[in-house]
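Researcher: Batch entry, complex prediction.
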Amino acid sequence: MKAKTHFAFFDEGSKKEIRRALLKAVAIPGYQVPFASREMPIARGWGTGGLQITLSLIGKQDVLKVIDQGADESVNAVSIKKLISKTTGVRLVERTEDATLIQSRHRIPEVPLTKNQILVLQVPMPEPLRGVEASEYQTKILHSEEDYSGAWLQLFEQVMKYGKTATGADHPVYVNGRYIMAPSPIPRFDNPKLHQSDALILFGAGREKKIYAVPPYADVSSLAFDDYPFQVESFAGENCHLCGAENVFLDELEDPVTNETIYQCNDTSYCLERLNENEEAEVRKTYA
Amino acid sequence: MAIDEVHDLQFVFREILHTMSRPGEIQSLRKLEGKNDLDLPLHDATLFTLLTLFDAEVSFHVLPRAENQVAGKISAYTLASHTTLAKADFIIVLPDATEAEITEALEICKKGTLIAPHRAATFIIDTDFTERNITVRLTGPGIKEQTMLHTLSNNIWEARNTTVTEFPLGVDLILTDSNMQLACVPRTTNVEVMEVE
Ligand SMILES: [Zn+2]
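Model: Structure tokens for the complex:
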């Protein structure tokens, strides 16, 4: 006889605790709510925080998309999808528009999210002040006193050194004018998508045992100075060599034949969808 | 038909999360009509909220205070422990609680600390969303422009607004009614009383 596995892997007690933490996270935007992170059957640092949130949210009616650095088929995304679909039976999709729940690492999809979707971002390092202060107790005090001078100084030092704010991914943001928050290692290109989002955005850090949130229609601004404004990665003049998209986040590749630099959509499901549309348009044109 | 602890409570949680993220949006739990077979004198929306959020790790208090029997039964069903107003994680306000009791509770309940603002009380208030003599306008995170509610009283909203003047301290509200509906008002919401008759 096969042992009955629990719906969505977790026992109901574990879900309850995470659900209570999620409600507090939404009520205090950008504040890191501690929770008792569980051991998961995937390696830590592979999205256990995000996974625990997804498992506490998901129901039979949900339609799930999981992406890792823009790709639906990466090893990490696939192992998360396997675990969730095996314990819930929910429908898995790649098209962003078709999903009700999206768990992601390192990207916010190119297709704008809607009111009926929840985005769960995996977070390796939730504390935006860790580079300034090593002690967890001290960073808690800094947040409580809204003492963000260290974070600003760090940014200023980058400007002095590089002539610009030299953060790559995970550029810190101000949420609802109160908390400085790590947006997870999304490219700066995705930071503006956090501002006044139609979708609820949740963040889970498994190893650090923190949950936080950006509610819809909340103000989120990237840290910057008046004379050194926040800038997203620029791909000016470049477009995807496959689908031709502009104004999306592009990966830089080397053409194996010509050794020239070429660009390609980082969000693979977005790229595929455009390719299919173009193809259909071509076909339609041919038969018109 | 009994409540399915896994799937029905998952549904209730998503409705609560929806309205906590979009303050003042009234959500319906009508899908679960007829499923409440527990012997508790609570409206379904209140009961389902308790079942969704309560376990042995949380404490609660019931208003009006005369409702000791109700508190005992809630403990028995959920394993949550009954405690004083000042210590409770959740404060359950039944329809027969007086305005004075509610404003007093808002005054002495936990508001969290600057280090741990999440350690604040959540009020679960059984109310009515069609009070004709009050209109409040909600603005803030989760609300695109504004949301109107017709519930509670001027004095209760004023007491609630006092609790949230030192954000991130404050209290979060889950409002329920007898028609299986619920709506949340977290501490980030600006509540403006528009009309009182
Ligand atoms: Zn492309």
